[in-house]
Write a structure and sequence with these properties.
Blueprint: H1 41-47, H2 50-81, H3 86-97, H4 102-105, H5 109-112, H6 119-146, H7 156-160, H8 165-180, H9 182-185, H10 192-207, H11 211-220, H12 223-232, E1 239-242, H13 250-259, E2 264-266, E3 274-277, H14 289-294, E4 301-304, H15 311-319, E5 325-329, H16 333-346, E6 351-354, H17 361-364, E7 370-374, H18 389-392, H19 395-415, E8 425-430, H20 439-448, E9 451-454, E10 462-463, E11 467-468, E12 471-472, E13 481-483, H21 485-488, E14 493-500, H22 511-522
Parallel strand pairs: 4-5, 4-7, 5-6, 7-8
Antiparallel strand pairs: 1-3, 2-3, 8-14, 9-14, 10-13, 11-12, 13-14
The structure holds S-adenosylmethionine (SAM).
Length: 523
């Protein structure tokens, strides 16, 4: 017997182990930036390989050298001040070389201070003690750091000849720690860029990315979020299915699946057709988002410009309740055949399926109430599904993608009917997380056509970038939404919704805007 699906029942009593146990857990973050996690040398030596021990020895040696340097600098300062009498200087030096704080407290003062000394000598002594105390505090602070495992920047040989993944993992943790408090943990002669470059190299090895894509991803996220994203992209997102509301209600579908032993749950309050499946392979929750944002209405004329294999188009048809007309287009003929098959199976009867290059669609047909552009992209949001993205995408791929995306988006806008009584809306989406394919493409369309961004209607997701590195986008780009595997437990995705106001094609564009666009082009 399956279990009954109960919706709208928030107070359902908690049951013991069961399907909830199969929920995908949050990603385990191996890399945590926590100074407390640093081992001292002794602990470390117990677990280390031969090469690691050699490195640890070099670290200790370097530490000693640092201590010596500090001591010399301090001694010089003392001499400059010309304060303490000889024996006190010795005491200071003794204390100075000691690693044990208790040395200072236990100094037999009386044995070292001549009772015959003048008042001014006593004042000198007070001053010296004060200095010593200060030095002591400083040293305490230093020792706190020294008692931890200070990360010594590796030599080129060490960088290039890492032999094991645990070594890389340890080094990534160390570098993250240094970067988390750069002033405190850096080596003075090393720049932040050097640590970042080392981190990038190690992350590429650890997670198997090429340097190009890793650099792009590192530009998007702060370090702690970066690690979460990389970890989350190693794990497949939960499978989500959409109820075909043309044939069945979600409640009945869930019941049918549960009675066949499939573990399902509603995907979330934001969708009334999605079900999360806890043990099988198919599309992700993010694919529901663009259609929810498009908000198709009955009896409208709607275009899905890049529709194959028809996942989102069939969702649109269902929301239209098989009324109006849905044009489902794709440039790829064999993929178009997939749409035909899927539409038959799903009982969709309001559609016309076409196979054109989307970039010329406005020359074939126009006057749509709504258009969806679910654009072809680099797929950097779905790395967990297609890990080849990690190594196969380069600068040229990104350029090719955003050039095509811009052209498709402009044509899609031209296909929209400005005078539509119910619509005039367009949704642009990608499964990429790169701003070049998302905010920059939409920003380009804002300059080239008479359109404005409007809220997506999705009440979750993070805001699109208005600023990204040195680039500045139109402030309304904050209305677009980004979705990430590590924050929303779904594939990486981008959704923007635009409203068209007229067929006017703006000609004059401010220099700054053009400048930004050129920067994105040359990026
Ligand atoms: C992200 S997929 C679309 C997925 C689809 N919306 C769905 O939900 O099933 C992008 C699609 O764009 C199509 N495509 C690529 N270049 C195109 C072009 N110039 N015109 C129209 N479609 C194109 C690809 O064949 C691919 O099927």
């Amino acid at each position: 017997m399956g279990r009954k699906a109960k919706y709208n029942d928030e107070n359902r009593p908690k049951k013991g182990k069961g399907r909830k146990d199969k929920r995908q857990k949050d990603p385990d973050t191996v890399f945590q930036i926590d100074p407390k996690n640093i081992q001292d040398d002794e602990d470390e030596t117990k677990k280390l390989s031969h090469r690691q021990k050699q490195r640890a020895a070099r670290r200790r040696k370097k530490k000693e050298e640092w201590k010596e340097k500090r001591k010399m600098i301090k001694d010089k300062k003392k001499i400059k001040k010309n304060e303490p009498p000889m024996e006190e200087t010795e005491i200071i030096n003794n204390e100075d070389v000691s690693d044990d704080d208790s040395d200072f407290d236990s100094l037999p003062d009386d044995n070292y201070i001549d009772n015959e000394k003048t008042e001014s000598a006593e004042e000198d002594l007070d001053q010296t003690n004060e200095n010593m105390e200060q030095d002591n505090n400083e040293q305490d602070m230093r020792l706190n750091i020294a008692s931890q495992d200070i990360f010594i920047f590796p030599s080129d040989d060490d960088i290039n000849n890492v032999t094991s993944i645990p070594e890389i993992e340890a080094r990534v943790k160390d570098v993250l720690l240094v970067l988390s408090n750069f002033k405190k943990f850096r080596e003075p002669e090393r720049s932040r860029q050097e640590y970042i470059a080392l981190l990038r190299k190690d992350l590429c090895t650890y997670f198997s990315y090429n340097e190009f894509l890793m650099e792009r991803i590192m530009n998007i996220f702060p370090l702690d979020e970066l690690m979460n994203f990389l970890e989350a992209s190693e794990t497949q997102r939960p499978v989500t299915i959409r109820t075909n509301s043309l044939k069945v209600r979600r409640r009945d579908l869930a019941q049918a699946l549960i009675s066949r032993g499939v573990n399902v749950d509603p995907v979330g309050k934001w969708s009334n057709v999605g079900l999360v499946v806890y043990s099988s392979p198919v599309p992700a929750a993010s694919s529901l988002l663009p259609v929810i944002a498009l908000a198709p209405k009955e009896n409208e004329r709607i275009l899905d410009l890049c529709a194959a294999p028809g996942g989102k188009a069939s969702h649109i048809a269902a929301l239209m309740k098989n009324t109006g007309v849905l044009f489902a287009n794709d440039a790829n003929k064999s993929r178009v055949n997939g749409i035909v098959g899927n539409f038959h199976r799903l009982g969709i009867t309001n559609s016309i399926i076409t196979c054109y290059d989307g970039r010329i669609y406005s020359q074939i047909m126009k006057g749509f109430d709504r258009v969806l552009v679910d654009a072809p992209c680099t797929g950097t949001g779905i790395i967990s599904k297609d890990p080849s993205v990690k190594t196969s995408k380069d600068k040229v791929d990104v350029q090719k993608c955003f050039t095509l995306q811009r052209e498709l988006l402009l044509t899609a806008i031209d296909c929209l009917n400005t005078r539509s009584s119910s619509g005039g809306y367009l949704v642009y989406s990608t499964c990429s997380i790169l701003p070049e394919e998302n905010e920059a493409v939409v920003n380009y369309a804002l300059r080239k056509r008479d359109v404005k961004l409007v809220p997506t209607g999705l009440d979750f997701g993070t805001e699109g970038f208005v600023k990204y590195r040195q680039y500045r986008f139109h402030p309304s780009l904050n209305l677009t939404r980004r979705f990430y595997p590590h924050t929303h437990n779904m594939d990486g995705f981008f959704v923007a919704k635009l409203k068209k106001f007229s067929d006017i094609i703006p000609t004059s564009v401010s220099q700054t805007q053009e400048g930004n666009a050129e920067m994105m082009d040359s990026n």
